[in-house]
Design a protein that fits this description.
The protein is of the alpha+beta class. It is 26% helix and 23% strand. It has a 7-stranded antiparallel beta sheet, with helices on both faces. It binds 1-methyl-L-proline, FE2/S2 (inorganic) cluster (FES) and fe (iii) ion (FE). The site of 1-methyl-L-proline has 6 residues, from loops. InterPro entries: Rieske_2Fe-2S (IPR017941), Rieske_2Fe-2S_sf (IPR036922), Ring_hydroxy_dOase_asu_C_dom (IPR015879), Rng_hydr_dOase-A (IPR001663).
Amino acid sequence: MDPLSSARLDDPLTPAREATVEMLQQRRRHFSLPQPFYNDERLFRLEMQEIFEKEWLFAGMTCEIPAKGNFITLEVGDNPVVIVRGNDGDVHAFHNVCRHRGSRLCVTDKGKVAKLVCPYHQWTYELDGRLLFAGSDMGKEFDLSAHGLKPVHVRTGGGFIFVSLADEAPEIDGFLEALDHYLAPYDMANLKVAVESSIVEQANWKLVLENNRECYHCNGAHPELLNSLQEFDDTDDPRATPAYKALVARKQADWEAQGVPFTLTRLERRNRLTRTPLLDGAVSMTMDGKQACQKLMGNLQSADLGSLRILHLPNSWNHFMGDHAVVFRVMPLGPQQTVVTTKWLVHKDAMEEVDYVPEQMRKVWDATNDQDRRLAEENQRGINSKAYQPGPYSETYEFGVIDFIDWYSERMLENLGNTAPQLR
Ligand code: 3BY
Ligand code: FES
Ligand code: FE
């Protein structure tokens, strides 16, 4: 298909589309991307259209909106979105944009409402998006039913909420089924957010993801995390030692006996689920490797469950331990600015200061996030130099980065309407 056939002739991004397709077709695989992918405003707008407005994005957790009227909001670039629990108990998502004159409707990160009421002129919507009330003088002809909130695709699985702003959403059933399976023991409806953080990084979102997809930097950067984390990704990690493989075999026998899922599942390059052991003796990602919450999640019998790692490209990675979970959401703000939101989850009946101390629980990942922020920001500053040129990824240490960049390049090319095979 002609890459430009879907582009409008007057679209100012048309030349950028052509240039992007060409750069992606000519990129060297196993090398970082050319500079414009990390700092160009037009390329950023293009990938917001082609990735963030088309793919499924991790938005939040169902336990954040437990009751009808609970909502959370999300900004997908210029697109405000609201996700709300309806009267029917279902999760709905809408463009958070009033159908009167377009004001943002819900203006806080989260809340609870009886109806969705616009703060500007009080147009009032039902939780399922229907317009109920539009002032007194819109005229006899005014059709309430034609002015409901615009829906956004939303799906849930294993307590995770995903949204897609595409006209036609891509497939996600396989991943949702996998999430339901892996997270069944955690009783996801009965968790709560113990503490959360949002940090803004002065770096392109792909640098944030690239950094997360390798542990090549862990030894030099993450002393707190390495009190509990194994640097190996799984037994298929080329660096995995016999001692690590023996530990995995031992732990897997325990997990098998307890009925908790652990095998590695990959769904395309986009989604990956696996349970891997922490350092022998550590049961949680805490400063001392001990539980951060005395009450375990769901119906788990043991805290010693390693970490269930869940990757969802383009914007989430997660660690589920026995006592608590840490979920991460990445949202681009600009070509060189990204917000990373981290939430620590515990059993909803766990008592703050009794079962867990939030300041203790968050220590390791607060430190790790800050260290990763600095790495991504320095990476960005070097990439902005005229001296930058794409550099080689190590297949041994950076296979996860290679996978991410391959996935990104394929999605961009396909969504840009060009499926020509890439050059090697
Ligand atoms: O644990 C994580 O989420 C990633 C993977 C390896 C390094 N990094 C901190
Ligand atoms: Fe929402 Fe006017 S813009 S009521
Ligand atoms: Fe890191």
